[in-house]
Amino acid sequence: LALYFHIGEREEKCIIEDLPSDTLVVGNYKVQRWDIHKHDFLESAPGLGMFVTVSSPSGEVLLSKLYGPQGTFSFTSYLSGEHIICFQSNSTRFMAIGGSKLRIHLDIRVGEHFLDESAIQAKDKVNEVNVRLEHLIEQIHHVTKEQDYEREREEKFRKTSEETNSNILWWAIVQTLILISVGIWQIKSLRDFFISKKLV
């Protein structure tokens, strides 16, 4: 996931990542500040830091840390579900002025264990194959976890759909019985009315 978004210097912005359990997440970000004279975002925002906060689906805070204008953060999900990742600058400005707009470039990688290419090159060919094989095995484990998580979600959705369909069926049966009962009662009432008026 690579994106950028705009926020005010004192504004908090959050994104939601739906993650399986026991998954490593690594995020890289860079902050740019709007320059009112150049009418453009400057390449860096010196002196400006970012508070990064990550909350699990149960509300537990997994990460809460102040970083610089550019940085890398990481965390591991312990529960499957929607994790909330929030960003807020450490700006001390009290007024929103023209230069208070920030652009945050964000790159989030889920379930990746990065290869150290320099370490691989320093080793012989057998070790290189072993390291790459271990990396592939880790990637396979991650894909398997993702598939298991999607299977769980599909199972929950299917159960909810079946329960809803069952409720709709019973409601249709109840409505039909009510309509039949009202129809029988109306016919009986009309018959009694006509008999009492001696029209039949």
* CATH topology annotation of the largest domain: Jelly Rolls
What would you say the CATH architecture of the largest domain is? Sandwich
In CATH terms, the superfamily of the largest domain is GOLD domain
Structural class: alpha+beta
Q: Beta-sheet strand percentage?
A: 35-45%
Question: What helical percentage do the residues reach?
Answer: 25-40%
CATH top-level class of the largest domain: Mainly Beta
Q: Main sheet?
A: 5 strands, antiparallel
Q: Which overall shape is indicated by the principal axes computed on the Cα atoms?
A: elongated
Number of strands: 9
Weakly predicted, low-confidence segments: 95-99
Q: How many H/I helices?
A: 2
Number of domains: 2
Radius of gyration: 31 Å
- Element-by-element helix/strand order: EEEEEEEEEHH
Q: What is the CA-CA span between the terminal residues?
A: 80 Å
Membrane topology: Single-pass type I membrane protein
InterPro entries: Emp24-like, GOLD_dom
Transmembrane segments: 168-187
Subcellular location: Endoplasmic reticulum membrane; Membrane
Note down, in words, how this protein is organized.
There is one protein chain. The protein is α+β, with helices and mostly antiparallel strands. It has 2 helices and 9 strands; from the N terminus they run βββββββββαα. Strand 3 (23-35) and strand 4 form a beta hairpin. It starts with a strand and ends with a helix.
